[in-house]
Amino acid sequence: MFTEANTPAADIPAGDGETNGFATLGLHAALVRAVADSGYTTPTEVQGRAIPPALAGQDLRVSSSTGSGKTASFVLPALTRVLAARGDGKRREKGVVHGPRILVLTPTRELAMQVSKAASTYGTHVQGLRVATIVGGVPYGAQLKALRGPLDVLIATPGRLMDHMASGKAILANVEMLVLDEADRMLDMGFIDDIRHIAESLPQERQTVMYSATFAGHVGRLAAELLRDDAQTIDVASHTDTHENIEQRLHWADNGQHKNALLDQILSERDMEQAVVFTSTQRDADWLADRLADMGHHVASLHGGMPQGRRTRVLQGLRNKQLRVLVATDVAARGIDVPTISHVINYGLPMKAEDYVHRIGRTGRAGRNGLAITLAEAPDAGMIRRIQQFTTQQIPVATIAGLEPQKPAPRLFTQRREGGFGGGAGGDRPRGRPFNKGGFRSGGGDRPAFGGPRNGGGFKSSPRQR
Ligand code: AMP
């Protein structure tokens, strides 16, 4: 998620120096101490949201990227299990190989090493903690020895673990918690059958937590197989994500009428497969959906004021393509995981900058490209500025031929920001994606009058490669 290398924990909030937020999550004091030793006092979003249900034994489906603090979000609950077992007074019989209580599967050796390091760091006050790492590309000897000894946590890549299972050396009969880290990458690497086989060898009543950038397609189906029906879904967008596969554009509108004309044009573009149009209020969502329906669009609104049954039916309509346009509010945004959404259009801006990130994340799913278009009027400039500061990226300004704004674009930046971006709307390149990619005209240039001839409404640029 980091836009630059070597900026660890860049988006992780600083602690307040007085209370330790990890204690309030219900973690054992030994773990809170170890986390504090590492200098962390405030849980990151994924930690705050995943740790309590994980401690309660729930299965989890978590979307969260590297750098969000996700490793600790499963290592800490895992170590809590180890500590609980230490305290249950039941001694494990000597001379019998019990195998680990916790099994973590990772796609690569590097990730396995990172998880192993986190387990040792956060487990530093867990007496006699035994962690083993089983990865490919290294000799078997030390791994066999580790598997024979008493073991609390086993971190493995699927291929090598399968080898040890085949030779009967890996005992997995006592696994209480299975973690799949970066499940989508494991599937990309062809590990699906190995994962299935490993999971089948574990006790039925285990807890399973799955981390993946997406749960669409194969990985979603695997999640449905491995997780219990009441598994909780946690979706954490990372705000400095560069969203490489999502192209962002900002269109300035002179007024509401101009904004509607821009929206109508965008919705009539041929490469528009399905769109989610966001409004600021439920009333606007209903009003806009009615307006678009009158124009002949297959459209519905989705917002928190609707009964759950209707919301589910609307989402189903989007999934089975009966709907081409969904008009939604922020409350509804997080539950929308439909890979065919090609466009996200911000018709009304969000109240909070982080909601912008949740919104644009509705497109570009399952490895596809997406387009996130923001339609803004002059009074929205403050919010646009906050969004750009929050994401540390500039949204390139674009125009549509024949629908160019007449008013000059509001100035978003008046001074250079250290380590960020500066200049006017046509200023420095953002850190994430190249500015003005695709040859869009940046704001502030000469513009023909709004309402002039429409050249079929094509975007004023070379066509985008999608
Ligand atoms: P991860 O997403 O697990 O790869 O973690 C990214 C980085 O954030 C690692 O260097 C962690 O040590 C660090 N980290 C994890 N939790 C916190 C936290 N609560 N506060 C600050 N940094 C953290």
Structure description:
The protein has 466 residues and is of the alpha/beta class. The protein folds into 2 domains: 2-235, Rossmann fold (3-Layer(aba) Sandwich), CATH 3.40.50.300; 246-465, P-loop containing nucleotide triphosphate hydrolases (Rossmann fold, 3-Layer(aba) Sandwich). It has helices spanning 29-37, 45-55, 70-87, 109-122, 141-148, 158-166, 183-188, 192-200, 217-226, 256-267, 282-294, 308-319, 330-333, 353-360, 381-391, and strands at 60-63, 102-105, 131-134, 153-156, 177-180, 207-211, 232-235, 246-252, 275-278, 299-302, 325-328, 343-346, 370-376. It has a 7-stranded parallel sheet, sandwiched between helices. A 6-stranded parallel sheet has the order 8-13-12-9-11-10, sandwiched between helices. α12 (308-319) links the parallel β10 (299-302) and β11. α2 (45-55) runs parallel beside α3 and α3 crosses α4 (109-122). The longest helix has 18 residues, at 70-87. It is elongated. The chain starts with 28 loop residues before the first helix and ends in a 75-residue tail after the last helix. Adenosine monophosphate binds at residues 8-9, 12, 40, 42-44, 47, 66-72. The site of adenosine monophosphate has 15 residues, from α3.
Give me the CATH fold name of the largest domain: Rossmann fold
Unreliable sequence segments: 1-18, 414-466
Instruction: Walk across the major sheet and give the strand order.
Output: 3-4-2-5-6-1-7
Q: Give the SSE order as H and E letters.
A: HHEHEHEHEHEHHEHEEHEHEHEHEHEH
Question: So what's the overall shape?
Answer: elongated
Strand percentage, roughly? Answer: 5-15%
CATH superfamily name of the largest domain? Answer: P-loop containing nucleotide triphosphate hydrolases
* Helix/sheet category: alpha/beta
Q: Let me know the largest β-sheet.
A: 7 strands, parallel
Overall number of strands: 13
Terminal-residue CA separation: 23 Å
Q: How many domain regions? A: 2
Radius of gyration: 25 Å
Integer average pLDDT: 82
Bound molecules: adenosine monophosphate
The helicity comes to: 25-40%
Overall CATH architecture of the largest domain: 3-Layer(aba) Sandwich
CATH class of the largest domain: Alpha Beta
Question: Count the helices. How many?
Answer: 15
